[in-house]
Amino acid sequence: MPNFQYTAIDAQGQHTTGTVQAGSEAEATSLLRSQKLFPTKIVEPGRDSLGAAGKKAATKARGGNKPRGATGGLIVIACGLILLVGALFSQNLINEARTSEEAARAEISAQQRLTEDLEEQLRHTEELLLDSEKARAELTEALENQQGE
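Structure (tokenized):
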């Protein structure tokens, strides 16, 4: 079973290199991914000795200069960006909730002050009414006293 040299990115985004024993490049890729590594380059020693024309043809056959497994690194970056956008969106929701909560508290506070003001006005009105009834009773009594004399 051949050994494959690899360059990969781990879950923390760090580059790592090493060798893995596998039956094929695809199997080596699977083994690395099972170890939470995302290969950016996998080379079987000895296959690297192609001439310039062979290297150019192999590069073209693979789809350009992109090493096999490079999409793993892109996936890690894309996942990181998705997590970052999700975190920003969550923070925005939290900030909106805090703002709404503060506005609700301010509204409740304003309503409590209004209620207290209305209760004070009601007490004052009741006092005026009692004073008015007392004055009316005194006038009625004085009038009855005058008529009785």
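The CA atoms of residues 133 and 139 lie 10 Å apart. DSSP finds three helices and three strands in the chain.
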